[in-house]
Write a structure and sequence with these properties.
3 helices, mainly beta, 407 residues, Porin, OmpP1/FadL family transporter, 14-stranded antiparallel barrel, disordered N terminus
């Protein structure tokens, strides 16, 4: 029994950093064009996509947006016809950007507040994998002050400091039944922070062709003195002392991006982005509990992720002076190796399709809408720690809206 309990606790994630939780919802114009933006001059979202482009923006911006995310996963246990599904939940990734600089200045200053990692998953307490996960609610909120400088009419650079505020609430069942036959439950909740940076360069190769380079650094996020809450039968309470705390530190991976923009005429804008995410830093998940017992020891759970990549393309068509149509898509390669797929991150290679609409309400006020459908390909796996075996299938639906005031 001791080995079972330690194994279950070892699998508990504070933040499930897989591609499925790398939100990538950073601006409605960019979403509509397949998440491209590294090599384009579009709006204040360049604070995230490429700080080097800010100094080239012809106007100042204040903008905010939200992209409600509906995440639906299904699981079919190996050798059965049973099916389990996550409950309908609505996550709300958001963005805020501000960009300002005097008209004739070579400098522009920016501020971004956005959610690059997060997830909201609820499998309930009566499915086969309840000992691996019942529910997970996590958010990583980045705050990024930024500065950009135009070196020449063809080249600008920029960078920003990143502060991350992370929040997590996770529940899972423990196979220790009370007198009524109900399972025990473990819950971890807490918050923490991490530091990083974002830098980029923007090149106007010609009047029609632009290039962008961007690097977003790794952000090590540490949660200290989070609440570790265990509900077990009275006969086991001494082995799971309350109150209790935990400390954990996890890396949010760095991302290297290159982007290209092409404007063949005054109607069309085309874009291509390639992103390489350095997930290999996520090798182990460790927990240090404030109070240990013979059954509750500090745990070290291997993850052994590999680096992943995403390929994105999109287009914008100017239908009228105040109306823009957008569409795009992409393909992402999972960082999760065979044997390490878990219910909080049922990840696999994926493709997605996007569309969007931009409308200028006034000379200075824009309304942008976006929609994304994302399909995570079916993946049959047996987890090497929990032995949960079966096939995961996931679909994601993401509408979005933003307003931007520019002058």
């Amino acid at each position: 029994m001791r080995k079972v309990i330690l194994l279950l606790l070892a699998c508990l994630p504070v933040m499930a950093f897989a591609q499925g939780f790398q939100v990538n919802l950073h601006g409605q114009k960019q979403i509509g064009m397949g998440h491209t933006g590294t090599g384009l001059l579009q709006d204040g979202a360049s604070v995230l996509f490429n700080p080097g482009a800010l100094a080239m923006l012809p106007e100042n911006y204040i903008q905010a947006g939200i992209s409600p995310l509906i995440f639906k996963s299904g699981f079919n246990p190996t050798g059965t016809t049973a099916s389990y599904y996550t409950k309908s939940k609505l996550a709300t990734p958001f963005t805020f950007y501000g960009v300002w600089g005097p008209k004739q200045s070579k400098f522009k200053f920016g501020l971004g507040v956005y959610t690059p990692f997060g997830g909201l998953t609820d499998w309930g307490n009566d499915w086969q994998g309840k000992y691996a996960l019942e529910s997970l609610d996590l958010k990583a909120i980045y705050i990024q002050p930024t500065i950009s400088y135009k070196l020449t009419n063809y080249l600008s650079i920029g960078g920003g400091f990143v502060y991350n505020h992370g929040i997590v609430d996770l529940k899972r069942a423990i196979p220790l039944a009370d007198a009524s036959g109900a399972d025990g439950q473990a819950q971890l909740n807490g918050s923490g922070h991490g530091l990083g940076w974002n830098a980029g360069a923007f090149i106007k190769a010609s009047d029609k062709f632009t290039i962008g380079l961007n690097y977003r650094s790794q952000v090590n996020t540490t949660i200290k003195n989070g609440d570790a809450i265990f509900k077990v039968a009275k006969s086991m309470e001494a082995n799971f002392p309350q109150p209790n705390t935990f400390t954990a530190s996890l890396p949010l991976p760095s991302t290297s991006s290159v982007g290209f923009g092409y404007t063949p005429n005054n109607k069309w804008t085309l874009a291509l982005d390639v992103n390489y995410v350095h997930w290999s830093v996520y090798k182990v998940l460790s927990f240090d509990y404030g109070t240990n017992t013979s059954l509750l020891q500090d745990t070290h759970s291997p993850r052994n992720y590999k680096n992943g990549a995403a390929f994105r393309a999109g287009a914008q068509y100017k239908a009228k002076d105040n109306l823009f149509l957008r569409f795009g898509g992409g393909y992402g390669i999972t960082p999760v190796r065979d044997g390490y797929v878990t219910p909080e991150a049922p990840d696999a290679n994926r493709y997605y399709l996007t569309g969007g609409l931009g409308y200028s309400i006034t000379k200075h006020l824009d309304l942008d809408l976006s929609f994304e459908y994302e399909r995570v390909l079916a993946r049959t796996q047996t987890n090497i720690e929990s032995n949960l075996s079966g096939t995961f299938k996931t679909n994601v639906y993401i509408p979005g809206i933003s307003l931007a005031y520019h002058w």
